[in-house]
Fold this protein.
Amino acid sequence: MQDEARLVQQARDDMQVFATLYDRYVERIYAYALREAGDVATAEDIVSATFEKALKHLPQYKWRGISFGAWLYKIARNELRMHWRKQKWTVPLLDIFRSGASDLTVENWEELLSVEITLLGITAEGDEEVVDVVTLSSMEE
């Protein structure tokens, strides 16, 4: 741990030392990002952003007796959260019906529609017009 604390201190002034820290953690951060994101391109973006932010904020980093990697994982976790927040989440429920690969029935439609409304972020409590618009637009697709 003392070796790592010394490396972090030196990395503030020497990019070669930061490269040593990068080499030590890049595969672990990538594996974490890939496991969480589920695709290579997003994982690579997360790793890139993680190390970019670590380098940028290294002067403000304070050693607290835990590994530098813990700080990197925290940055990566925050990058993943920001990535997911930026995504527009939709669930193609009609595709489930059209594919015929499901045992879902029309009786489930109202329940599934309420799930879709919730996932789309529509708060339709007491607003039948919103529910009708979502229902009709879903049926047109």
